[in-house]
Amino acid sequence: MGGGTVLGMTRIDKNPEGGSAAVSVRGLVKHYGETKALDGVDLDVREGTVMGVLGPNGAGKTTLVRILSTLLAPDAGHATVAGYDAVRQPRQLRRVIGLTGQYASVDEKLPGWENLYMIGRLLDLPRKEARTRADELLERFSLTDAAKRPASTYSGGMRRRLDLAASMIGRPAVLFLDEPTTGLDPRTRNEVWDEVKRMVGEGVTVLLTTQYMEEAEQLASELTVVDRGQVIAGGAIEELKAKVGGRALRIRPADPLRLRPLADALDELGITGLATTTVDTDRGDVLVPILSDEQLTAVVGAVTARGITLSSITTELPSLDEVFLSLTGHRASAPQDAVPTDDRQEVAV
Amino acid sequence: MSTATATTAPALAADARIPLRGHLRHTGALIRRNLLWIRQDPESMFDALLMPIVFTLLFVYVFGGSIGQALGGGQDAYVQYVIPGMLAMMSMTMSQGVGTGFSQDFNSGVMDRFRSLPIGRGSVLFAKITVELGRMLFATTVLMIVSVLVGFEITNWPGLFATVGLSALFASSIMWVFLTLGVILKNAQSVQAMGFLVLFPLQFGSSIFAPTDSMPGWLQHFTDYNPLSTLADAARGLMVGGPVAHDLWVTIGWSVAITAVMAPVAIHKFRTKN
Ligand SMILES: Nc1ncnc2c1ncn2[C@@H]1O[C@H](COP(=O)(O)OP(=O)(O)O)[C@@H](O)[C@H]1O
Ligand SMILES: [Mg+2]
User: Fold this and answer.
1) Which of B1, B29, B112 lies nearest to residue A101, judging by beta carbons?
2) What ipTM was predicted for this assembly?
């Protein structure tokens, strides 16, 4: 198979400093009737790195993870994890992976400790080792106090941490995390992020899926953007940002009532950057993507010309949301679970 | 492109086959899980405790007099008749739990975790069946205690153990059916509804509660080969005396046939479920 590039995707054969591919996916297809859950996906994850698979609801992320963890057979294409073929060598493959599915995959009726002990035994650890490992992981994921309580009494964050602990028992070489923080509140989300970062620090290769740009930015070093079963972009996060280019200006008028006139003024200016100009009525500011210093100057000029007083103006790197928008031409569909609030309204581009 | 190198795979992983000891270890860990469920939620044993009590009292004191008379005795005669029938009925009713429990597992993410672990697919099923058989044994014990209290006389003690063995054999075959339903149906309620549809005609078109002599001919043909009838009649023969051979063989035949067909189906459905 040739190393064709998808929108500048960094391929392992061009990366002498990186390790070999821990996950390699070629032409993966899975259709459900008319729905093309996966429609020819190519993907490589180098050993010891974190690959973020970013896409809106229904993009095919879960389908991909399920195929990689042998829960689902693809219609076409092939996938290997740590060198094992997902279809032909499922047993070997299962030995080297850890999975935290999108939906909590702990046994809610069992206490935390029992969940971990059970999985240790299912992974063929001797009794004593399974016990120590359960203790160790509870300690590490700050669940020791809750060890004896049924998981059903845990908070969302605790359950997620138990889930992560469970997928670490076998010391997996490759870890799959399917939307690890969907449905968690921001504080808990940060806790889970910290845990994932620690796991990465220990050298495990991670493929994580997410709908949240912020999450990918926090955890992943490389990114694959998927939409409707297809890879639409891939590469190092920084590289991808550079590719999309530009910055965004966050402009706040001193008088909130001037928000609309401000947006109109910017529209007239015709600066379209890469994403849309967005008005955030809750925050009371406007986000304008720009490509150059000239555009920055033009924006300031237009605002001054209208006599709008500003209380603040800041430049930001483009969010991955904007990256997504510029790549797909449409906004990532809004997540149902209100994690990062993204209720900015779109104005005409 | 030669990207795939198995540098991260431990040597262990090279051998895909799971040794028998591995299967036993996995099944053991999963049995422990199911037992912990019971400890966590003792109410889940209520059916096993109450069903034999309620049904025995109900049938003995409500129908006992009149059916007993027809049997040429009284309530005592009915007790001798109906208790082995109860035993057969319970083996069937208790088997349902295996399907509803399984369906619940599938609707949580736990099953995905099990299926992503390097364990044999059968382990999950065998563990469920083992625990459910244990529950059935418990219910049987309760039934035997209650039945002795209402005057049941066992004339052949070895026959009691043979009966328990036979019901366990039959129950385990029915459990494969319910496991299959648990895998293919959407939720526990559907499994229960489907179970009811299957069990109801089998239970009442049988010799469990009353002799079949007065039933119409066509129904008698059905009851003669209805495994619940043959199990009940075999239990009668074994515990209180009478002919057993026909009923014993028909019951064993059914059990073996159902297991031979349904166990592979259940395992296959389980393995290929998306
Ligand atoms: N078992 C299934 N049957 C039918 N359609 C499915 C099934 N699983 C997923 N899909 C469809 O495939 C698409 C991709 O789903 P999924 O992989 O779950 O997306 P994501 O995880 O990115 O939200 C969606 O349109 C979804 O409705
Ligand atoms: Mg998903």
Assistant:
1) B112
2) 0.83
